[in-house]
Automatic annotation (TrEMBL), chain A:
It comes from Esox lucius. Residues 16-233 form the Metallo-beta-lactamase domain. SUPFAM superfamilies: Metallo-hydrolase/oxidoreductase. Its cofactor is Zn(2+). This is Integrator complex subunit 11. One of its GO terms (cellular component) is cytoplasm.
UniProtKB/TrEMBL annotation, chain B:
This is Integrator complex subunit 9. Coiled coil: none annotated. It comes from Esox lucius. One of its GO terms (biological process) is regulation of cellular response to growth factor stimulus. Residues 538-558 are annotated as: Disordered. Belongs to the metallo-beta-lactamase superfamily. RNA-metabolizing metallo-beta-lactamase-like family. INTS9 subfamily. The lineage of its organism: Eukaryota, Metazoa, Chordata, Craniata, Vertebrata. Residues 295-423 form the Beta-Casp domain.
């Protein structure tokens, strides 16, 4: 029995370093190749030795697919392709291909230049790795080889995020990457057709959350920013350069415009300008509204938001600063946080998920004293707010996607085990499908039951469809009969007659003849008529004919009556039928042996 | 499979393909050459045009007002079939969809339209522009009496010969455009779209314009390729996908170059040098053009050219109600562009250099001559504007303005209209005319190479491609020469395509497949008899195992049950092979039938089972069992015979 195997190397009952291996129809596919923000050692990357202990991965993988540019989905890519070794195709969408190398380079700089790590991938390796990338368009069917095809669907989440369908023959798997089922200020909602995959591999970051409406959260956010600015405080919003940042910028920009606010808004890092430019060039990947109006007013050209300079940190007066990175684990956002943390007038708004081990995670858990390097401690006096703006599907969204795609099995990754457990129960209950949640290195196996494609001769099919009548009768299914010819790997279903002809075989006629004696005090021709009438009343739905020469025919069975002049009342019925009418012939000979009922009128 | 040809225009095709009970319209171009037969629509009052006399027939009996009404467009002869029966319309590029509102609106059309996103967006711009051109000028008068057959007959020139003038229609409205385009479903290159489960259609990159596509229409066994407006030149769009066209049963070939003798690169060179010459001499240059397409290449060419040619201070104007949108849209379709332009987006930089021309104020765009343009206007300058027919749009104004001076030049780049006809109403004209038609579509040399490569079984093409152009009848290289010869079509042809569908895809459910017992009858050939229930849903067929009959409900009238005749079931399998005498006798013996008298006949043997008073006639291709009053024996014999035979 064919089966599909799924093994997470990362993101199994965990968030971070997404990397999932799928074996389907003899093909091996790696879905995402991410890094873990919470670790600085070997655990940062997926354990590729699972695939092979030594040597390159090229011969073990048919392709690698990257769902979007977040580092927990693509951060290990240069390591995998250049340091472990993989030369096969890597697929990602155009925006991902554009933005991914920038984030990788950023990541490399922080790790190597700031933290001084060696044995890390180089800039050249990032470039070499990106050369192996083949861009994917939405809904385009890409033939990886003769059997394996992949297709990308819009996933929302961030610019260029995609869900992918992987198909070999009639077996298929859909991997969602990270997705968002509700449109936001700059992106649309994820969508997939009813493709009925054998397995749907879904993220489950917010498996137990059902978030209140986006409008409320936005109002809350604006209110908090407004209040802080009014009382002269500073607002720090740690973000990643691309994604949420643009959504919040659009939100603040329109609010500032409407309220005629004067406090400055800054956006850190040189990436910003560039990032906004990507959004302008890839405007077809944003939501309907932005796409419709971009000619008149490009939403990514901000009037109120200006570039940040490090010297502004100590500026007096209120301000709002977007700074990278989003989890406060390094860089400018951490630097600003240290400066502003001591003042209770200030506020920090965390708009996204923070991985364990980061300062973002600590302060969100209410930690008021942070230990820094050099045994220093930092007191956290500013207000800490968490606003879930990260664009993941919540429980409702995940259920909605299942309803859209109608998978036969469900597999959860990219979430915490406890929350997954809850969602798994819910899915199994509501959809009565199996739901898997393998841990890293654990394999889930799903047996598929593919149907066998066969070429049917059009003559046979049309004949059957015509016989079946315009509407099928579910109570009396018609049995069709054909011959399957298996030759040179081809399977053809034809009518038996055609099969005989094609194979140069002659038909063998098998006939039966049976004599039945019967007492019937009528003339021979009357007996014929009496038989005809009798059979008419017994056999419904059969063709019964009384031929001019006196014989009676039921379908192709011939019934002839004769009698000897000596005993005119003893009739001999001669029944003759071919093997094709065996059931009916056997029935008739038995029936007629019992004689004809006396009450039959001679018409 | 049938092909209904609604358009005779080879580059504005409109065909309908009937294939496996789906009706598919391939493109719906709008032939605007009909407007050449009317006077231009000026934006501002033109004393010259309004003073032109009407037309009086020779004998003076018919007196016609002059017709200043270039709003009549040649909508293809659409009575050939009922438009409401069309299931889908496939669009190959934005030039080939301009008649869409005529088909989707007010005809009962209920299907859907498939096009790529750039085709939809730019097609929308071109339609909006057309509507805007037509509607912003109040029509002087609209004449209809010339359409009368009697009058048309005596009219001069091309009007007399124009066929089907009654199908010439006035332009659609913006509401029609919006409603028509709301029926468009977006598709990406290589996306497989299922139509009713019966047919799969796939757009492929055709390399001609942004989002332009060829289409594959196929089932599991048959493949039709529709090639329309393709280009192998390296311009801005994604290169043409040729390999996917391989193994077609039928290839419908339309939209070849209209200028088979003009080399686009050479024309581009002429364009630049003529432009520079005129500007240096202090004249203005007018370029009548469409608002999307070749203009992007012209601007890119000028971007490189103007610095070298010292034209840095010359203003370039692009006037169109959709100029801004066209320039903006061109920058956001990175996925649909050639590799070079794609990699620019990764930097991130706009893919087309006209962004820089706009930023440095070298190129300015305006919705029309009114408003800002009139204050910014500086001469000498270069103006790109439409419509290339010179019958409507801002270009009419510039013709009136600049036509009198020999310093000025008009450079034609669009190949759709004869430039002499286009200029006719403006004669006498002093301005220089340069004809540099740039048509990047396939030429005959390229297409024959392509066909050699993809090897379709049959080629269908407009009849114009099967003979050299009338003006160059000796150029046998300007036609398609193929073996077997292409099937030509003309307007209103209905072609039966040489197809015999013999097979259809069906799926055996795994339970059924497992129950089959194949037997090898020849080396490498196995047979299995299949008895199954056919299920057909959404044009997909599956075979399921025959359900086991339900146990009969306990009946009170037991006797009646026995008499129940057998259900009308599928017939028994056919038999093949023969029954060998010796082996059969041995088997009979085994079953206790020992008294057998064998008699030889001409065709075989007759076995007389004496104890049972039964005859069995064994022949090479038949067996006959004559057995009276002994049903158990008969069935035993039957089964023994069947042992030796193959069931089909």
């Amino acid at each position: 029995m064919p089966e599909i195997k799924v093994t997470p190397l990362g993101a199994g009952q965990d968030v971070g370093r997404s990397c999932i291996l799928v074996s389907i129809g003899g093909k091996n596919i790696m879905l995402d190749c991410g890094m873990h923000m919470g670790y600085n050692d070997d655990r940062r990357f997926p354990d590729f030795s699972y695939i092979t202990q030594q040597g390159r991965l090229t011969e073990f993988l048919d392709c690698v697919i990257i769902s979007h540019f977040h580092l927990d989905h693509c951060g290990a890519l240069p390591y995998m392709s250049e340091m472990v070794g993989y030369d096969g195709p890597i697929y990602m969408t155009h925006p991902t291909k554009a933005i991914c190398p920038i984030l990788l380079e950023d990541f490399r700089k922080i790790t190597v230049d700031k933290k001084g790590e060696t044995n890390f991938f180089t800039s050249q390796m990032i470039k070499d790795c990106m050369k192996k990338v083949i861009p994917l368009n939405l809904h385009q069917t890409v033939q990886v080889d003769d059997e394996l095809e992949i297709k990308a669907y819009y996933a929302g989440h961030v610019l260029g995020a995609a869900m992918v369908q992987i198909k070999v023959g009639s077996e298929s798997v859909v991997y969602t990457g990270d997705y968002n089922m509700t449109p936001d200020r700059h992106l649309g909602a994820a969508w997939i057709d009813k493709c009925r995959p054998d397995i749907l591999i879904s993220e489950s970051t917010y498996a137990t959350t059902i978030r209140d409406s986006k409008r409320c959260r936005e109002r809350d956010f604006l209110k908090k920013v407004h209040e802080t600015v009014e009382r002269g405080g500073k607002v720090l919003i740690p973000v990643f350069a691309l994604g949420r940042a643009q959504e919040l910028c659009i939100l603040l920009e329109t609010f500032w415009e409407r309220m005629n606010m004067k406090a400055p808004i800054y956006f850190s890092t040189g990436l910003t300008e560039k990032a906004n430019h990507y959004y302008k060039l890839f405007i077809t990947w944003t939501n309907q509204k932005i796409r419709k109006t971009f000619v008149q007013r490009n939403m990514f050209e901000f009037k109120h938001i200006k570039a940040f300079d490090r010297s502004y940190i100590d500026n007096p007066g209120p301000m709002v600063v977007f700074a990278t990175p989003g989890m406060l684990h390094a860089g400018l956002s951490l630097q600003i946080f240290r400066k502003w943390a001591g003042n209770e007038k200030n506020m920090i708004i965390m708009p996204g998920y923070c991985v364990q081990g980061t300062i973002g995670h600590k302060i969100l858990n209410g930690q008021k004293k942070l230990e820094l390097e050099n045994r220093q401690t930092l007191e956290v006096k500013l207000q800490v707010e968490y606003m879930s703006f990260s664009a993941h599907a919540d429980a409702k969204g995940i259920m909605q996607l299942i309803r859209m795609a109608e998978p036969r099995n469900m597999l959860l990754v990219h979430g915490e085990a406890k929350k997954m457990e809850f969602l798994k129960d819910k899915i199994e209950q509501e959809f009565s499908i199996n739901c898997f949640m393998p841990a890293n290195g654990e394999t889930s196996t799903v047996a598929t039951n593919p149907s066998v494609p066969v070429d049917i001769s059009l003559n046979l099919l049309k004949r059957e469809m015509a016989l079946g009548g315009p509407l099928p009768d579910p109570k009396k299914p018609r049995t069709m009969h054909g011959t399957l010819i298996m030759k040179d790997n081809s399977l053809r279903l034809v009518s038996p007659e055609q099969a005989l002809k094609e194979l140069g075989l002659s038909e063998h006629q098998l006939r039966f003849t049976c004599r039945v004696q019967l007492q019937d005090a009528h003339s021979d021709s009357d007996t014929h008529i009496r038989i005809y009438t009798h059979l008419k009343s017994v056999l419904k739905g059969y063709t019964i004919q009384h031929l001019p020469d006196g014989t009676v025919m039921v379908e192709s069975i011939v019934i002839k009556v004769s009698s000897s002049p000596e005993e005119p009342n003893t009739k001999v019925l001669l029944l003759s039928w071919s093997y094709q009418d065996e059931d009916l012939g056997s029935f008739l000979s038995t029936l007629l042996k019992k004689g004809l009922p006396a009450a039959l009128s001679s018409m | 499979m049938k092909l209904y040809c609604l358009s005779g225009h080879p580059t504005l095709p409109c065909n309908v393909l009937k294939f496996k009970s789906t009706t598919i319209m391939l493109d719906c171009g709008l032939d605007t050459t009909s407007v050449l037969q009317f006077l231009p629509l000026p934006l501002v009052h033109s004393p010259r045009l309004s003073k032109l006399p009407g037309w009086v027939s020779k004998d003076g009996t018919i007196n016609l007002e002059k017709v200043q009404d270039p709003t009549l467009l040649n909508v293809f002869f659409i009575e050939l079939l009922d438009l409401s029966t069309i299931d889908v319309i496939l669009i190959s590029n934005y030039h080939c969809m301009m008649a869409l509102p005529y088909i989707t609106e007010h005809t009962g059309f209920t299907g859907s339209v498939y096009a790529t996103e750039p085709t939809l967006q730019i097609g929308r711009l071109l339609m909006e522009e057309l509507v805007n051109f037509m509607e912003r000028v109040p029509k002087a008068q609209s004449a209809t009496c010339w359409k009368n057959k009697e009058i048309q007959r005596v009219l001069p020139g091309p009007l007399k010969d124009a066929v089907e003038v009654l199908t010439w229609k006035t332009c659609y409205s913006i509401q029609d455009v919006n409603s028509a385009l709301s029926k468009v479903q977006l598709v990406g290159y290589s996306q497989k779209v299922e139509l009713f489960g019966a047919v799969q259609v796939t757009p492929l990159s055709s390399g001609y314009s942004l989002g332009s596509s060829n289409w594959i229409i196929q089932s599991h066994y048959e493949k039709v390729s529709y090639v329309s407006g393709s280009s192998l030149l390296t311009t801005h769009p994604q290169p043409m996908d040729q390999s996917s066209l391989k193994n077609s049963d039928v290839l419908i070939l339309t939209g070849l170059t209209q200028m088979p003798t003009a080399n686009p690169d050479g024309m581009l060179g002429d364009f630049c040098s003529n432009l520079a010459m005129t500007i240096r001499a202090g004249g203005n240059v007018l370029v009548p053009c469409y608002s999307s397409g070749v203009i992007y290449d012209l601007l890119e060419c000028l971007y490189q050219f103007i610095e070298n040619a010292n034209l840095g201070s010359t203003p370039f104007y692009f006037l169109s109600p959709v100029a801004n949108s066209s320039l903006e849209f061109s920058q956001i379709f990175a996925e649909w562009l050639c590799h070079n332009k794609q990699s620019k987006v990764y930097l991130p930089e706009p893919p087309f250099p006209h962004a820089e021309l706009i930023q440095t104020n070298k190129l300015k765009h305006y919705p029309s001559i009114h408003g800002d343009f009139s204050t910014d206007f500086r001469q000498p300058c270069v103006v790109f504007t439409g419509h290339p027919s010179l019958r409507f749009g801002d270009v009419v104004h510039f013709m009136e303005l600049w036509g009198k001076s020999s310093l000025n030049t008009i450079i034609f780049t669009e190949p759709d209209f004869s430039y002499l006809d286009a200029l006719a109403p403006y004669q006498p004209l002093s301005m220089k005319c340069v004809y540099c038609p740039i048509d990047t579509r396939l030429n005959f040399h390229q297409v024959s190479k392509l066909l050699k490569e993809v090897q379709p079984l049959h080629v269908v093409c407009p009849e114009q491609y099967t003979q050299p152009p009338p003006s160059q009848s000796h150029r046998s290289d300007l036609m398609l020469e193929l073996q077997p010869p292409p099937m030509p079509y003309r307007r209103c042809s209905v072609l039966g395509l040489p197809f015999r569908r013999r097979y259809e895809r069906i799926h055996l459910l795994p339970e059924l497949a497992k129950s089959l017992v194949p037997s090898e009858i020849k080396p490498g050939v196995s047979l299995a008899t299949v008895s199954a229930v056919l299920q057909s849903k959404d044009n997909k067929h599956t075979l399921q195992p025959v359900p086991k009959p339900l146990p009969l409900p306990p009946s009170k009238k037991r006797k009646r049950v026995v008499e129940e005749p057998p259900e009308v079931l599928a017939p028994k399998p056919l038999l093949s092979g023969s029954v060998p005498l010796e082996a059969f006798l041995a088997v009979l013996h085994k079953h206790g039938i020992t008294e057998v008298k064998v008699e030889e006949t001409a065709d075989g043997h007759i076995l007389h089972l004496q104890a049972e008073d039964t005859l069995i006639q064994l022949e090479e291709d038949g067996t006959h069992i004559v057995c009276d009053n002994n049903e158990p024996l008969r069935t035993t014999l039957r089964d023994l015979v069947l042992r030796f035979l193959m069931k089909l």
